[in-house]
Design goal:
Elements: H1 2-29, H2 38-44, H3 49-65, H4 71-74, E1 78-79, H5 88-91, E2 96-97
Antiparallel strand pairs: 1-2
């Protein structure tokens, strides 16, 4: 139940941020509230908020795995270690374990 409540709260926060981003795009172009924002965001090279969060997360993980991030972040991710039994998943070193 708590997980669901946190998920709903996070989703509503993303929706609120998306509204702010849409309002900013409309303000920059001097558009009315009822006009769409997809074209405006594309012209401004704005990703939708949910996609931007995913992009930033993926970029951060990439940097951590390739030694481009600060140590305090890189130390939070552990690469998978090989096991005595060979599995196909062991060949993929990008699979992460939770510390």
């Amino acid at each position: 139940k708590q997980w669901y409540q946190r998920r709903v709260r996070a989703k509503s926060n993303v929706q609120e941020l998306q509204k702010v981003q849409n309002a900013a795009a409309r303000f920059i172009f001097g558009q009315r509230r009822w006009q769409g924002t997809t074209r405006l965001r594309k012209e401004l090279h704005f990703l939708p908020v949910a996609e931007r969060i995913e992009f930033k997360t993926c970029t951060l993980v990439y940097k951590c795995l390739n030694g481009l991030a600060p140590d305090y972040l890189s130390s939070r991710l552990l690469k998978r270690k090989g096991k005595s039994i060979r599995l196909r998943a062991d060949e993929d070193k990008l699979l992460l374990t939770i510390p």
